[in-house]
Structure formats: structure tokens, C-alpha cells
Amino acid sequence: MEILDDGLVGPSTYRRMLTSDEEDVEQDEVQESEQNFIVYNGERIPIDWPKVVLWDEPGGLPAKNYRNRMHKPKRDIKMFVNHWDATLSAKHCHRVLSARKPALSVHFLLDNDGTLYQCTDLQNVTFHCKGLNDCSVGIEISCAYYTKYQSWYRRHNFGERPVWRGKVRGKLLKPHLGFYDVQIQAAQALWKAMSHPSIGIPLQCPMKDGEMDTYPVKEVINKSYRGVIHHFHASKRKIDCAGFDLHEYLEELT
Fold first, then answer.
1. Tell me: the pLDDT tens digits for 74-127?
2. Would the N or C end of the chain have less CB density within 10 A of its end CB?
3. For the chain, what are the domain ranges?
4. CATH fold of 11-18+32-251, please?
5. Strand, helix or coil at 192?
């Protein structure tokens, strides 16, 4: 029987790690800036987004476990992989990933308010997408996934999340929580930054019959694809980020 994981950390880990209303959701106040950047092989890549926190800055969320490739040949980044984290906040996701044995990691965490955390230099290899880690960069977008947490977001003043019914591998999922507009805008800004000539990820996603493909893609799995993908494009066991139409939002950038 096919197993459908709700996200990178999986449903069982999520249930073990997630606390209830006592979960610490207090977010650091991130000062907005008109001139922000992300970092690839020590180079500052500009990003048109007001809230960016690097791993070595106050309030940063550094990756605990990654393969250090600094001072080695610049790695060829082919794909940008989107995940939802199935947790309540970027800080909580960071704790969940760090608590795994061995720890998992990701290059970016995107919080409920649109704050973007870079967790390590893009030159380093993080462990977020089996089979593609060496040639990809990944992001965890904060979203608890299950609709039962809608009231939690309201009570903690984040506001109502949209409810999606994403389709994966031809199957319509049960209603689940989607992303806030500010998170989508932050993701778009990051995709745009990833198309910088120094990185060169094309602003395209896997397509089929004029729409975003919702199946695993052979070219993704064999590492010949270049572009922006969802986790489910790389695995028949994953469903993130169903309902998030990459084609629609990438088109707005071109």
C-alpha cells in the first residue's frame, strides 16, 4: 500500500514532536531592509524581499547537519525543491529537523509571517530530498497541513489559512491548509533570486498537457532536470506541496 507522507519530517515524527497550545510560537521581530541577500559560495546574491535572516545573524537558525563543501569546486545547483514542514513555525521545524538522528537539514526555512531564514551557504549540501541533495537547494515552508490547526493560527494572531485540495498523482487530497499570501510572495522572491546568473536555476517547473505535472518526473529523479520543483516530483511517497501551483506563480515572474 502506498504511504502518503504529509511532508519532509513525516506524520509520525510530526505527532511526536508537536506540542499543543503550549508550543512556543513567539517570533523574533525581524527588521525589514530594502537591501537583502542570500549567500552562495560566499557570494552575496541580491533578493528582493524585506525579511531575510542568515544563519550567523542574531536570531538565525543554522543547519545542524550538512556536508561542508566550502573551499571546494562550486557545486552545480540544478533544482530548487519546495517542501511544507508540517509544523507550526520555522523555529519549530528547525528543532524537529535538528532532533532527527542523524539530523536533517534544509537551506531555507520560511515562517508564517514571511520571514526567510537561510540556514547555511548554498555551496553546502543539506539533507532534505533523498537522491537530489547533491544537486539541489531546498526550502521548508511553515504550514501545519491538517485543518484541525486552523483555529490555532487564529488564536495566535496569524490569521486564517487558505484551505486547499491539492492533487497528487491523479488523486485529490482531503482539504488541507495552504500557504499565506506573504509566504507565496517570499517564495517567489527566492525563486527569482535563485535564477541569478551565479546560480542559474531556470524559472520553470515540470509540465504536462499545459499544466504543472503532479507526478514524479523521470528527469527530476535522474537529475537531468533544471528548474523549480515540489517534493512529490522526486518521490512517489511524498505529497508536498500539493495545491501550490508552481506554473502559475513562476509565470508571474517572467
1. 999 999 999 999 999 999 999 999 999 999 999 999 999 999 999 999 999 999
2. N
3. 11-18+32-251
4. Lysozyme-like (3.40.80)
5. helix
